[in-house]
Amino acid sequence: MSSKVKWGGIAGLVAAALLIISAILTQISPDTTASYLFFGVVLAAYIAIIVALVGVHALHSGKPRYGRLGTAGTVLTIAGYALIGVVRVISMVQGQPSLPIVRLAGAGAVLIGSALLGVIIIRARLLPWWCGVLLIVAFPLGDVANALFRSAENLLLALLWGSVGVALLSRRQEVDEPVLTQPAGTG
C-alpha cells in the first residue's frame, strides 16, 4: 500500500509542476493552446493526476469512512481526467479543438467525482481537511478564474494536486514508521 501512496504523492507533485509549466506556456505565447508542447505537458499532467488519484485511493481503501462513495468518487474523477486527456490527444492530432461534448462529459465527471471524493476525504480524516476542500472547489472555480486571468485554472489545479501530493507523502511516512514494542515478559 505505501508504495502506491508514495507514487501517488510524487505524481501529485509532478502534476503540480506540469500544470505550472502549462500556465507559463500559456502566458508566453497566446497560440500555446494549439502547440504540441502545451498539449504534451497538459496530457502528462493529467496522467500524473490519475496516478495521484490511485495513491489517494490506496491510502483510503479498506477504511470504513471511505467505502463505496469514495471509490465511486475516485473512479468518476479518473474517468473524467482520462476522457479529457483523450480529447486533448484527438485535438492535438487534428490541430483544432475537437469533441466538445465529450470534453464536457469528462469535465462533468471530474466535477461530480472530485466533489464526492473531497467530501469523503474530509469525512475519512486521513488527509488534511483542506485537501478535501480543494478537491471540491478547485475545478469549478477554475473556469471562473480563467475569466479573470488566463490559465488561472491550471494554477488552481497545481495548488490542489501539489497539496494532495505533499499530504500523501507525509501520510506515507507516518504509515511507514516502525512501531516500537517491548518483548513480552520484560519490564
Short description:
It contains 6 helices and no strands. The protein has 187 residues and is mainly alpha-helical.
What is the topology?
Blueprint: H1 2-28, H2 36-60, H3 67-94, H4 100-124, H5 129-148, H6 152-176
Structure description:
By secondary structure, the protein is an all-alpha fold. It has one domain (2-174). Helix content is 80%, strand content 0%.
Mean pLDDT, nearest integer? Answer: 87
What structural class should be given to the helix and strand makeup? Answer: mainly alpha
Number of domains: 1
The largest sheet, given as strand count, sense and whether it forms a barrel, is:
none
Radius of gyration from CA coordinates: 18 Å
The total of helices stands at 6
Q: Would you count the extended β strands for me?
A: 0
What share of residues are in beta strands? under 5%
Helix content: over 70%
Distance between the termini: 34 Å
Topology as a string of helices (H) and strands (E)? HHHHHH
Unreliable spans are 175-181
Report the principal-axis shape: globular
